[in-house]
Amino acid sequence: MEPISVREMISAAASGAATATSTAGAPAVERRKRLSPAALAVANEKVRPAYSAIVIEGLVRLADFVLIALTGVSLYLGYVARMDGFAWQYIAAILAMTITAVITFQSVELYQLQVFRITLRQMTRLVSAWTFVFLLFIGASFFAKLGGEISRLWLSSFYVVGLGALVSERLVLRHMVRRWARDGRLDRRTVIVGADENGEKLVQALNAQKDDDTDIHVLGVFDDRNDSRALETCAGAPKLGKVDDIVEFARRTRVDLVLFALPISAETRILAMLKKLWVLPVDIRLSAHTNKLRFRPRAYSYLGKVPTLDVFEAPITDWDQVTKHLFDRVVGALILLLASPLMALVALAVKLDSPGPVLFRQKRFGFNNERIDVFKFRSMYHHQADPTASKVVTRNDPRVTRVGKFIRRTSLDELPQLFNVVFKGNLSLVGPRPHAVQGKLQSRLFDEAVDGYFARHRVKPGITGWAQINGWRGEIDNEEKIQKRVEFDLYYIENWSVLFDVYILLKTPWALLKGENAY
């Protein structure tokens, strides 16, 4: 079953304006949905950021490669090369043995996070695989009639020292992985949808598995029903609230997976719930452990031994997240360095033009609706600053200074956001633009004007984005402008790649020179 695309869900959600409106002239108040005492107790627990199992496994492969290669080369240079002179054939043989070793380790499942925790199983496989690599090398050199040209002392030393180095590395790794597990960094914090018999069976199936088989940590269950079918606890997991509460709950604490315990036959009910939950940056799956309808084994994703069907996947995760993070920090630092003289001139102009601070700090929406402080050059008179953006800046707005008009039109006021990218890490170079938390279309907040608005917060916001280079920037004075921004932002999230980011960055200066819709 293929994951449902975001664009399909937008169509299914029948995008349109919501009927809720805010009272004109009322003070800006940040809206937060109330949670049940049980949900608050879980949300208030201290939770550390998660580590990606895929990234850890990849780094261990790299560590093995480097460790084996360095061991072989060091022994060769320290003994054979000193006596017989340097020969590239040895280096080629070491490289071939290293690659073979990593492939062999992979084939015997030595690069699984669960295996890293278990000493006996890991060491048995490691010794067997390492021995196999050397027997394979000895056999190959025998048939190639190269046995007499290879130093037996070097080969035996490589086997013993290499094995000792690998065993030592795995013991350290075991200690680190167990510590991360104790700290909850490897847990997949999961909420179950469906507080009934199916939900109880699912929680029991997940809890029955050993910690070495799965890292699922069930936080609780959610269900809209209040009749006798809805249980207050499912196999010890408390009922935390209704499905509508999951969005707010996931914004107050780390949630990695939403797992539906409802049968596939409850299609209408599941779809109605997905319309509410797809805006979250989490994996969403349907449990198949009680379904009578069975698919091919490859159609399932497994949580230990529990089969599930993928519906939504969190965007930009694992190595993609690492790549984007490095791209932001490295490229962002280079841009900041190159832009420093220009930023100094803008700061001087702002200071000379009107009294007040050079920088302006504003609350905006970040990843998963986190509230972040975004830095900009001050473009308004200090006494008329609007930190919550409760009033939209329009053409010839009297609050904007002379210098402010220029730097807003050219987007030079956005340059200090490079500090957010490089030093604070709460912005990306490219992503959906972070809107002010009280940004409005007429009298309605943006999320009230566009269904699925918060789905643009499934990734970290950016200084520039796909919507901006396509002309959707500046004042939002009609429904089409905010809807188009959301549409382009969601397209970017679905189609992200490093090359896409590079393309948007290269197109940004041209989009800024046109100065469309920026006041």
- Write down the Rg: 28 Å
Determine the mean pLDDT. Answer: 84
Query: How far is the first residue's CA from the last residue's CA?
Result: 47 Å
- Helix share bin: 40-55%
How many domains? The number is: 3
Low-confidence stretches: 1-30
How large is the share of residues in beta strands?
5-15%
**Shape summary:** flat
| Tally of alpha and pi helices | 17
Number of strands: 14
Read across the widest sheet, the strand sequence of neighbours is 3-4-2-1-5-6-8-7
* Class per helix and strand makeup: alpha/beta
Q: What's the story with the biggest beta sheet?
A: 8 strands, mixed
Detail the topology: elements first, then pairings.
Layout lengths: L5 H7 L24 H7 L9 H32 L3 H20 L5 H4 L2 H25 L8 H31 L5 E6 L3 H11 L8 E7 L10 E2 L2 E5 L2 H9 L4 E4 L6 H11 L5 E5 L13 E3 L2 E7 L5 H36 L5 E7 L5 E7 L24 H8 L7 H8 L3 E3 L9 E2 L2 E2 H4 L12 E3 L1 H4 L9 H16 L3 H17 L5
Parallel strand pairs: 1-2, 1-5, 2-4, 5-6, 11-14
Antiparallel strand pairs: 3-4, 6-8, 7-8, 9-10, 12-13
Description:
- The chain is an alpha/beta fold and 519 residues long.
- The chain folds into 3 domains: 6-15 and 31-49 and 187-314, NAD(P)-binding Rossmann-like Domain (Rossmann fold); 53-182, no CATH class; 319-514, no CATH class.
- It is 48% helix and 12% strand.
- An 8-stranded mixed beta sheet has the order 3-4-2-1-5-6-8-7. A two-stranded antiparallel sheet has the order 9-10.
- α6 runs antiparallel to α7 (152-182) and α11 runs antiparallel to α12.
